[in-house]
Structure formats: C-alpha cells, structure tokens
Write a structure and sequence with these properties.
By secondary structure, this protein is mainly beta. It has one domain: Immunoglobulin-like (Sandwich), CATH 2.60.40.790. About 0% of the residues lie in helices and about 60% in strands. The protein is built from no helices and 8 strands. The protein has strands spanning about 5, 10-15, 20-25, 35-40, 40-45, 50-60, 65-70, 75-80. The termini are far apart. About 15% of the residues are buried.
Length: about 80
Amino acid sequence: MSAKETEFPYRLSMEDYGIRIMAELPGVDEKMIQIDLEDRNLSISAADRERLYRVAIALPGEVRLKEKRFRKGVLDLFLERTDGH
C-alpha cells in the first residue's frame, strides 16, 4: 500500500532576524523529515506509515537555515536573511 501524498498546514511569519516557519506534522518521526533550501525556495517533505507530506514554499528573500526544532509533531524553522534585508 502506497502512502497518500498531502500538503500540511504551516505558518510563515517575518521576524527581526528573518523568517520563521511552523509546520504541523502529526505522527511523523523527526528522522523522516527532509528540508531542502535552494535560493528562495524551501521544500519540506516527511512521511509516516500512511501519508507522505510535502510542501514547497517560495520565500520573500534569500535565507539560510539558522535553527530547526521538532517537538510534539510541530516543526519550527528559523531562517536568517542573507540578502541584506
């Protein structure tokens, strides 16, 4: 049986240091999360036994991953602006 692909809820907010993204990934093990950051595009994918979560986010500027946290099914990414804004 193959996993059903689905998007997941996330929130993007602008902070003093850059961008914060909070994504809800219930039932997912942290080891199953993949984060790809290229230019102004962020993609997050993760899988559990039944679902394949995937989302692509166009970012408003160039960033680097500053910090990643995962707790109780919530992924929290802190992205630092690198384009001088």
